[in-house]
Structures are given as C-alpha cells and as structure tokens.
Amino acid sequence: MATIKQNTPNAHTRILGIGAYRPSEIVTNDDVCQWIESSDEWIVKRTGIHTRHRAPADVTVLEMAEHSAREALESAGLTGEQLDTIIVSTVSFPYLTPSLAAQLADRLGATPAAAYDISAACAGYCYGIAQADALVRSGDSTNVLVIGVENSPTSSTTPSVPSPSCARARAWSSARPTSRESARPCGVRTDPSGMRSV
Question: Which of 16, 30, 101, 180 is most buried, by the most CB atoms less than 10 A from its CB?
Fold first, then answer.
C-alpha cells in the first residue's frame, strides 16, 4: 500500500529569474488610427501609450512562450527537468487541449511537471503568480514557472485593429527565512461588476 506523504510548507518564496519575448514589429498610434477614429494625442493623453509591439504572422504563441521561458530558466540557473509546475496564462492559444503549458513542458524537457493553462485575460499572469506562490508555500512544488503570453492578430473589441503581442515569464522558488529576496504573500481578487464596460 502506498504511503501518502505530507509536504513540508515553506514560509518564504522568491523570484529566481525572469524572461520575456518582445516582438519585432512596432505598431504606432498613427497605425492604430487607420482603423479607429482617434488620434495619437488622444491615445497618449488617456493611456500613455505611444507604441505597442506585435509578433510577425509566422511566430506562434508557443514559440513566444518558449522564448520567454528559456530566458527565465537561464536567469534562474534552472533546467526544465527541475520544474515541478508550469502555469501558462493565455486567452489567445487556439486549442483547448492539449494545453499550451503541456506543449511547453514537452519542449523544455519538464517531464513529469504539472502543466496547465489559466484563462483570465489581463489578470491571468497575476493569478498565475499567486498560484505559484501558493504552490511553493504549501510545499507541493519547489520550482514553478509562470508564463503570460498573448498573440492575438486583432482586437476582440475592434476586429480590424491589430492587437499587441508579448510573453513574460517568472521562475518562482522557495527562499530561506533570512533571505532579503523573500517575496510577500500574493493575493488576488475579482470585481466583475464592471464587466459590461469592457
């Protein structure tokens, strides 16, 4: 009969490494204004945005996620085999299954790490970080990789307007109690009352 082992909790967690994929194509406000009735001045005044980046048509969400993931692992001094969990936040992966996280785990050699996607749009990366923090604090995982990646060719609200693309990754791990690098506990909340305004 198998024995169920209880994991030892960790009181402290930390970010070991970070990575990113920044696409090469730049979309200016003037470019956006070709598709919507606005101006560079109006957009900058209300958002502070001057430009955004978009991935070339031949670059996939998986490739973007892999680039940022490898950069984060290198920054952390980890290999794929050392990962216990991979969490990917995305709403632009075209398939429900297999998950983007599972395909990424295969590319990184992160077997048999747990790998799953979460879908919470802009807040998803924050949810992923909170989950990574909780997994490490619980003792269930030692090293967790969190990736937030989006590559929508067009905006969901204005289909003809090109949307920005990006990928970012963080490697999360346990920390010694005396470490200055220790992160504070993460907490997330949702207020769906304004969802009709989005």
Answer: 101
Mean pLDDT of 58-86: 93
CB atoms within 10 A of CB 165: 24
Closest CA to 166 of 48, 15, 27, 14: 27
Cis omega (within 30 of 0) for bond into 192 = no
Enumerate residues 6+ apart whose C-beta is below 8 A from 91: 119, 120, 121, 124, 150, 152
Sheet holding 13-21, edge to edge: 13-21, 165-174, 143-151, 85-89, 114-118
Question: Which two structure tokens, joined as six digits, stand for 113?
Answer: 């790490």
Residue with tokens 């909790």: 9
Both tokens of 189, joined, read 């909340």
Q: Give SS3 for 14.
A: strand
pTM of the model: 0.82
Number of helices followed by number of strands (H, E) in the chain: 5, 7
Q: pLDDT-based confidence at 156, cuts 50/70/90?
A: very low
CB atoms within 10 A of CB 67: 18
Alpha carbons 82 and 66: distance in angstroms, whole number? 16
Q: What percent of the chain has pLDDT over 70?
A: 83
**CB atoms closer than 10 angstroms to residue 51:** 12
